[in-house]
Amino acid sequence: MIVTDHSPCPPDMKRTDTGRFDQAWGGIASLSLALPVIHTEAALRGHTLEDIARWMSTAPATLAGLANEAGSLQSDRDANFVVFDTEAEFTVTPDKLHYRHTISPYMGRRCAAL
Predict the structure, then answer these.
(1) Are the C-beta atoms of residues 56 and 42 closer than 8 Å to each other?
(2) Where does residue 108 fall: left (phi above 0), alpha (psi -120 to 50 degrees), or beta otherwise?
(3) 9 touches 101 (CB < 8 A)
(4) Residues facing 111 on adjacent strands
(5) Mean pLDDT by 10 residues, the chain (114 residues)
(6) Is this model's pTM higher than 0.85 or not?
(7) Cα-based angle 91, 92, 96 (whole degrees, multiple of 5)
């Protein structure tokens, strides 16, 4: 199962000035990068879009007790889906980040585009 914890903070709380990882705020704002990063890394390891759908939709819905309401595209269930070109790519840059503090551990990285 793969889930996100959108936990943004100001850059100074990351303690990049000291390099003290043990004192840095633990979360990152990465919700908009979750699927591109997972798709990129999963593809490199031979996983399919079906695997990703299970990890990021079916399994979390089941854990949350929502398997009869969400987590798969079936009649009478909530449907959240995305359509994207599996061959397209982009580079993570500050202008591509859609949140207040445009910092990311993925900065400069090539990812599958959405």
Answers:
(1) no
(2) left
(3) yes
(4) 90
(5) 77 79 74 88 94 94 93 84 85 86 85 78
(6) no
(7) 110
